[in-house]
Amino acid sequence: MSLPQISTLGSHKRQLAMKFLVLIWAVFLFFGLTASETETYNLIHSTILTKPGCESRCGDLIVPYPFGIGTNCSIGERFNIYCNKSVNPPKGSITEHDHSWIKLISDSTLRTSNLVAKRCSFPDGSWSTTNITSDYSRNFPYTISEVNKFTVIGCGSYAWLTSAAKNRTVSTGCMVFCSKPDEVAAAGDECSGNGCCESSIPQNINYYKTQVDSLTNSGNMSFAPCTYAFVGEENVFKFKGISDLRAIDRFDNSFKDRIEDTVPIVLDWAIGNQSCAQANKTNDFACRYANNTCVDSTREAGGYRCVCKQGYQGNPYLSPGCQDINECNNKEKFPCYGDCVNTIGSYTCECKSGYSGDAMVKDGCRRKPFNVLRLSIGLGLGIFTLLTGLFVLLLMVKQRKLIKLREQFFEQNGGVLLEEKLKTTGRSVMKIFQVEELKEATNNYAEDNILGKGGNGTVYKGTLPDTRLVAIKKSQRLDQGQRDQFINEMVILAQINHKNVVQLLGCCLETDVPMLAYEYVSNDTLYRHIHKTSGKGRLSWDSRLRIAHESAGALAFLHNDARMSVIHRDVKSTNILLDDNYTAKIADFGASRLVPLGHDEVTTLVQGTIGYLDPEYFHTGHLTDKSDVYSFGVVLVELLTGKKTIDPERGAQDTNLATHFLKAKKENRLLEILDQQVVKEATEEQLKATCDMVCRCLNQVGGSRPSMKDVAMELEILRKSSKQHPWISEQNYTEASSLMIESEEQNLYAVPLIANSDTFGEYSSSTMGMNEIMLHVHSPR
User: Fold this and answer.
1) What confidence score (pLDDT) does residue 22 get?
2) Using 50, 70 and 90 to split pLDDT, how confident is the model at 767?
3) Higher pLDDT residue, 225 or 36?
4) Element (DSSP H or E) covering residue 677
5) Strand, coil or helix: what is 69?
6) CB under 8 Å to 594, separation ≥6 — which residues?
7) Which CATH number describes the domain made up of 405-520?
8) What local confidence, expressed as pLDDT, does residue 312 receive?
9) Interval 533-568: pLDDT, tens
10) Which of 170-184, 425-439, 490-504 is predicted with the least confidence, judged by mean pLDDT?
11) Distance between CA 117 and CA 230 in Å, rounded?
12) Binding site: what residues are annotated?
């Protein structure tokens, strides 16, 4: 609601009329608005919104500084808001010739009205097309927010959006299909391609161009002759199904007007392109007033914003800055059922005299009990003695409860069963720790002792009384059905003695969640060493082969040589640790499973890490030792390429590293993706043999993969082969490429040119254009 505009009265009369209208409006607000609306009104009118002499409104739009209407009213020219008073009510826009109206300005975003691209067919087979270009690049503060979506409405058509980000052209778009009305998605359904589709917009763009086209060159949809495309705030547009398509008429702009009026575009804004730390060193730092703080923008272009501290409100960009909120005047937001006292930046709430308890909770204050000591001073000593005795008794009771609770946890976590099994086996070196021992070892589980957190628990660094360093893991809570399996696995793992497997030293079962103590491995994970781009500690080819061989040998031992076969189920480079001598250690058995004797597989809920997860296990739920082989194959690809397993920047088809590797092998492009250090140091035979072995490990059919024992043996042979090779020079590059030729019969993955989806994501225009993409999906499904 805005104050009525008065533009035809004289200066004195205008002031009187304004005061009168403000009084009437205030009475209406306080008697007709809700409490939250009244609070908003108080906030707006108790805050200095603009510089002196500047307008704070353009019609219904509130324009707070650093934005401004008119000369010298904003923090800079690019924050000027143009107010068009030729329309009623007046409307604000970013520039004088902008046809989009600003709907709302907040402390980090600006919402403006929409522009819609349109393409309609006519009975004679002709088309009319209106494409849209929205450019905010001249207005430095603005980038198009990621909360927007690109939406297309129609049938048998497609639309795309192009822009630029990180010095390259980016695009996004989607297609809509429907040949009959009953193929259109129902009202309220998601936009999945049947009459309506949507896709995410590229990041960090400040302009875009929208284009609409048809999938076919003949015919038209009698019930949906037009196609519309627009960018708008996510979840604001609600698709109404066939009624929306029937509303789309060649000469009827009601649908277009509805979108432009109700679905805003969200723009992110920030001041300048410096960070808070950089701007604070300059003379024009905007966050220089009281009780506010500076927040760095997340935009690629940089910049910062000013916000009031908690407990304060106001305009942080103008003197006197943010002012203290009187929380006691807002009982709904700051409840207090006692004596409320406002303090600077906060407030206190205490029970009234004669009462005690929590005054912030309704009925939380109770009348204080009568003090027995007032009856007789003579009883004071006796009462003191009694209270002291009760206190000591209470401590004893608490101590006993604590001991019983620990005994309960010990039994609940399977401690009795574990002791029996350890006595039966008779040769385990695993120790059962008391809770105080691990608490002291980790300095009461101090934050600076945390080594890592994961889906299976938190790992702390600890020092035992004998100065041994250990890694102490707080596991997840176990239910009753998992107890026996957990104990069996601990017994098995405690007896595994392999130089390349992290040794389980002991456990503590006296807490609500079990704690395990492993040997401490000091030189970080294989992942960190693989993805170092340069500098000391970067792994050589010989080191990579040795680490791969040691890891494969450890997994082969778990699969074949342990008392019961152990499937790790989460083999990845972050679960391979390196000690000071760069010796590999397989770690983290929180997801592992035992395979009973006489069985080749177990059926489990699918668990693992995206990028490493065996596709056959993912689809069937049948876990075998070949699932570890697949995951280890992905680790080998990491060692060969130095690339991450999941990287959206490689494009939609190559996001998954395993698929990317197999595709490059099939297309004879392996030298393009292999780590150059590996190419320089490895021999010709080593590279060919390693790549062939990786392809066998990544076979979609588990039964066609080699065993971990076979993989370990092949890696051992590769380590013994000769070093160095002569094909580094430019003239030998073509000859070396022939080593990567894929055999005709090997086709482990069929990689489609375009994903089986109605939506295509961001890609570089330097490699594929929109017309090339559309050739693959031109026929309606």
Assistant:
1) 37
2) very low
3) 225
4) helix 676-681
5) strand
6) 485, 488, 489, 492, 564, 565, 566, 567, 602
7) 3.30.200.20
8) 93
9) 665 667 899 999 999 999 999 999 999 876 678 888
10) 425-439
11) 6
12) 474
Judge whether residue 24 has pLDDT over 60: no
Q: What residues does CATH 1.10.510.10 cover in the chain?
A: 525-761
Could you say which of 3.40.50.720, 1.10.10.10, 1.10.390.10, 1.10.510.10 is the CATH number of the domain covering 525-761? 1.10.510.10
- Quick one: which H or E segment has residue 679? helix 676-681
3-state DSSP assignment of residue 604 = coil
Residue with tokens 């989607």: 174
Torsion of CA 755, 756, 760, 763, to 10 degrees: 10
List, as own/partner pairs, every contact residues 675-679 make where C-beta atoms lie below 8 angstroms and the sequence separation is at least 24, other chains included.
Answer: 675/640, 675/641, 675/642, 677/538, 677/540, 677/541, 677/642, 678/541, 678/544, 678/639, 678/640, 678/641, 678/642, 679/728, 679/736
**Signed CA dihedral, 381, 382, 383, 389: sign only:** positive
Binding residues for ATP: 474
CATH 3.30.200.20-classified regions of the chain: 405-520
Q: Which of 98, 570, 628, 675 is catalytic?
A: 570
CB 461 within 8 A of CB 520: yes
**Tokens 């929180």 — which residue?**
590
CA–CA gap between residue 353 and residue 363 (Å, rounded): 15
Report how far residue 41's alpha carbon sits from residue 313's, in angstroms, rounded to the nearest whole number. 13
Q: What is the pTM of this model?
A: 0.44
Q: Is 284 helix (H, G, I), strand (E, B) or coil?
A: coil
Tokens read off for 589: 């058995």
Phi, psi of 713 (to 5 degrees): -65, -45
Q: Report the pLDDT averaged over residues 354-359.
A: 88
Distance from the Cα of residue 360 to its chain's centroid: 35
Structure token digits, residue 13: 């009369």
Secondary structure, 3-state, 580-646: CCCCEEECCCCCCEEECCCCCEEECCCCCCCCCCCHHHHHHCEEEHHHHHHHHHHHHHHHHHCCCCE
Query: Is the four-CA dihedral 702, 704, 710, 712 of positive or negative sign?
Result: negative
Average pLDDT over residues 410-432: 73
Cα–Cα dist 250/440, whole Å = 77
Between 367 and 714, residue with greater pLDDT: 714
Sequence-separated (6 or more) residues with CB below 8 Å from residue 431: 505, 506, 517
- Rounded CA-CA distance 539/527 in Å is 11
Q: Is 570 a catalytic residue?
A: yes
Q: On the CB side of 351, how many CA atoms lie within 13 Å of its CA?
A: 14
Q: pLDDT band for position 650 (50/70/90)?
A: confident
For residue 120, give the H/E element and its range.
strand 116-121
